Amino acid sequence: MSLRLAGRLARRELRGGVRGFRVFLACLALGVAAIAAVGSVRQAIQTGLTQEGAALLGGDAQLEFTYRFANEAERAWMEQTATAVSEVVDFRSMALVQQGEDTQRALTQVKSVDATYPLVGTPVLDPDQSLPTALDGAQDLPGAVMDPVLMDRLGLSVGDRFALGTQKFVLTAALIHEPDGAADGFGLGPRTLVRTEDLQASGLLAPGTLFSTKYRLTLPPGTDLATVSDTAGQNFDGNGMRWTDARNGAPGIAEFVARLSAFLVLVGLSGLAVGGIGVSAAVRAYLGQKTETIATLRTLGADRATIFQTYMIQIGILSGIGILLGIVLGGLLPLLLTPLIEARLPVPAVFSLYTHPLAEAALYGVLTAFLFTLWPLARTEEVRAATLFRDALSSARALPRVGFILATGIGLALLVASASWFSGSARLTLWTAAGLVGALLLLSLSALAIRKLARIGTAPARGRPTLRWALSAISDPREGAASVVLSLGLGLSVLAAVGQIDGTLRNAIAGNLPDVAPSYFFVDIQKDQMPGFTERLESDPAVTRIESAPMLRGIITQINGRPAREVAGDHWVLDGDRGVTYSAAPPQNTRVTAGEWWPESYSGTPQVSFAAEEAEEMGLSLGDEVTVNILGRDITAEITSFREVDFSTAGIGFIMAMNPSALAGAPHSFIATVYAEEQAEAAILRDLAGQYPNITAIRVRDAIDRVSGLLAGLAAATSYGAGVSLLTGFLVLIGAAAAGETARRYESAILKTLGANRRRILFSFALRSILLGAAAGVVALLTGILGGWAVATYIFDTGFTVIWTSALGIVLAGILVTLGAGLVFALRPLAVRPARILRATD
């Protein structure tokens, strides 16, 4: 009976419209829209990757081998299983252009192909021609096509000549579109496309050099990819083969998109938390205006349940409207911006209205509205029939009954569980939730401290009336200082944390480069080239240090006779091939943390020294056996020592080092790092590349610039998400300023009656906003610095430095935003006539 009556009462109250709930609707709609938009873009990319998986991959399936070609048995299985097979070789090299006596060099990611490439898709070339025609060449030289970026870098035009290793090519076209480029992942240089048979005399594919082969397959119609994948795994178990198929043609991009979207959804949840504060404030202000109505209903016999249900129904209906607006906005926005988004994406995306991300956003909106409206609604029980005073609701006790507290806990648990499920990262979600709760607690305590300090500061402010008025207003709990600090402070906290993380990573990269990082990585150095290579560098006074080591690549397939992933899970060491070296004695500056290195003349069963930190993460112990597939051959070695490996120096670091006899006979090359003065780098590259054209030089500064570019894109995306939180906080701030307009009108009337002029009253209002904005900015800065330190220390495992330019910008933003909102809603109070206001006041 009470629910039916509550519904009738709620319907009648809603006839008055949504006045007072505009901020409520805006906050909820904006937060839901942000999450819905991110989810819709993520779903569009995933759909595009699924539908265009074969085109992205270059076939229905792919078998990849590390630094070797497929053997006869492997090739025979592919020919028997597939209707067509295409062989692709991928590696890095130096493109050389002779211009008179000057030689231009640039790093390039080379893809060499056979006559059947591509199985799916069509390359786009300029001038327009088929790929076979372009690779046929001219001028008695084989042809090549090249990324326009690399052409510009080397000053090449169509018809010009260049060399890869010792083989010369003629450039026949610019590579405008590479159909399977997304599946190749991150490369350190722009693309060059040639035929594999034209590289036979180049010296770039010699035994032991660093390359990978990819065999793309076209399968008969109706083939079950899962079955073929299982068959390939059984036939080639332990040979280092890696399988990819059209179900996920670009796994690296798919994983990156999933991780980025998960992080952005969590940033969106931060925005919802900010909006939740506005929702809570709007509900509390609305119920404060309904105190007399509630008391009247209690006088007429309405019980607590009826009153609670009446306003719960109202808030539920309004929440539904806000969530619906957010879903519509979040679903339509990606559709409207489709051309702009597609232009920025390296992969196909199919934009449409997807129900899954919209339902996910709606669930977040429902749980957020429930969490932030339950406590204000619970306080309606405190209004008694005999209480017909305007401030009765504000004088209610701070905590509701135990049942409401338990319901809030359950709602919070559901929200965190949902975010963990949808984001796919429970750890990141829990840390985000803990950070938000901690930030809210800190901001709440700060709001109380600000009010108390303002109350204390009113006495010393005697003789300065404008300051005293401002401090008195801040100390008044009805003036909304807590709402300003919470809403604006949380939005600024998210933005501050993003700014600190981005600046710290950039400083870590830029700061370590001159003092720690080498100038060049040299790879594919043949053993007979090492004496001359070393002699050139050791005779150069500008070279401060040279490090070199034999270089092989291997895939860990088993640990103690069991599949490696069953033992160590999804650790990054098992994700692809890893560097392997050998050494009779511990290399210089090597620190063995446990166990012992093998004797220099040791020639027994294989032994391996493993990186200590990674071994601990994988659960390895001394005496464990690790099986590594190197060039198709399984080598099982006992772990006899752990050693410290510091990958942060950008120097040579190997996960595994074996005794020399364990790798005897395995073809391999050498890798070297060279530390030199920057002004000598060009001469070093010129001499070594000219003497040894097969060697590939990777300039560390260029590689770090590419990584920095990726970080900049990630930082921009997260900044947009943080900007949504800040915008929501601004809306809450506007709502708080609008709600306090009546109080400021009365205050203005009193001050005018006492002789204050408009200028001093306006200055008092502005000073109040400046003080609150500065307080919110400082608290947000402290919270953001703490969050940035935690992420830098525990997630990125790097040092942390406060970025003061970003920090001061956050404080300034807090002041300007609060000042702007405060002044907008101070204009009408300044224009009031004191007599009219005071006459209308009881």
From TrEMBL:
Subcellular localization: Cell membrane
Keyword Magnesium on entry: no
Pfam families recorded: FtsX
TM regions (residue ranges): 21-41, 263-287, 308-341, 361-378, 399-422, 428-450, 720-740, 761-790, 802-827
Entry superkingdom: Bacteria
Domain ABC3 transporter permease C-terminal: from-to ranges: 267-379, 723-829
A single cellular component GO annotation: plasma membrane
Name of the protein: Lipoprotein releasing system, transmembrane protein, LolC/E family
UniProt keyword Transmembrane helix present: yes
Keywords for this protein: Cell membrane, Lipoprotein, Membrane, Transmembrane, Transmembrane helix
Classification via InterPro entries: ABC3_permease_C, Membrane_comp_ABC_pdt
Source organism of the structure: Ruegeria denitrificans
Membrane topology: Multi-pass membrane protein
